[in-house]
Amino acid sequence: xxxxxxxxxxxxxxxxxxxxxxxxxxxxxxxxxxxxxxxxxxxxxxxxxxxxxxxxxxxxxxxxxxxxxxxxxxxxxxxxxxxxxxxxxxxxxxxxxxxxxxxxxxxxxxxxxxxxxxxxxxxxxxxxxxxxxxxxxxxxxxxxxxxxxxxxxxxxxxxxxxxxxxxxxxxxxxxxxxxxxxxxxxxxxxxxxx
Length: 194
What we know:
Elements: H1 2-28, H2 35-42, H3 46-50, H4 56-76, H5 86-102, H6 104-112, H7 114-117, H8 122-139, H9 145-160, H10 166-171, H11 173-188
């Protein structure tokens, strides 16, 4: 019984470190947060963090890996049948937007922080996932790379804008309508450059 209780307490402590690290990394940047800063915020001693993570780099990976894994799941559920059907496209875009809405702090951090963007283990995953989103759009008929990049940018802009209420933007059905309209326009060649 004591082992189970100890494991649960350790797991909760680890989760608290990860959640606080994500918040602090997103606010101050990975390079701008020391393990000492993190420990102070958590009201613990820095060596306590090292009982969960061998290094700041290991903490960074542990902080972002769950989000990358979840996005892998969203990408794995991309439609493979009836991809020309606007309702099939809308359903997948809705699931992608839901991911962005729920994890906007992590998305902002993942796409803006040089510590993440230059990380030798994380960068290839981010590049691959970004390409996979464009591949989904290509399967929807968005053949022009500039149009695909524009649509990806449209889908993600609420996560990047500092003063935007992300919940209200992504929760507004017109956002999804507009995303689907942009996909339709790019298929028709009506977007600039498509």
